[in-house]
């Protein structure tokens, strides 16, 4: 299985879960973003394409926090959601990954846009908050909204728009950035956020 003790120890650590040299997703994405920034150089204009995407896992059921997404045939299947941001320069055919975020609608800190709106509208009321299906929004979801520690597609989009703008203007404050978003994010809040 291995050619020497060193390789054996690496395999042993990897298989046992005790691997000491692991990278966090934050470290990896930071390196990816810095590489993109380096590749863009002093480009005066950059388009940032933001795109949500479903990662479909229709035959998986035991994966951690696997949620529900739409298949290409518009049926509900198991899977995850992702939000990706890439930078491109006009008149060039290269894309530069700035960030990607994988999340699920069953994660403990996920709050749907509908529930978020209800909590914000009725946070002063003493009666339980119920959604349009009659389900009561529990205290955990309520506290996530009040403490602003929830996630959902809209919040991730806003975070990536802000992070990409900060990154791309870090060394080039006069750089023009055009954010291009899918129609899913065609709303006034996103436009105000970009402004």
Descriptive overview:
With 195 residues, the protein is of the alpha+beta class. It has a domain at 23-110 and 151-194: Transposase Inhibitor Protein From Tn5, Chain A, domain 1 (Alpha-Beta Complex). The protein has 6 helices and 5 strands; from the N terminus they run H-H-E-E-E-E-H-H-H-E-H. The chain has helices at residues 5-16, 25-40, 113-122, 139-146, 153-169, 188-194, and strands at residues 45-56, 67-70, 76-88, 96-103, 176-181. Strands 1, 2, 3, 4 and 5 form a 5-stranded mixed β-sheet that branches. Helix 3 packs across helix 4 (139-146). The chain starts with a helix and ends with a helix. The relative contact order is 0.15.
What are the salient characteristics of this protein?
single chain; 195 residues; alpha+beta; Transposase Inhibitor Protein From Tn5, Chain A, domain 1; 5-stranded mixed β-sheet; 5 strands
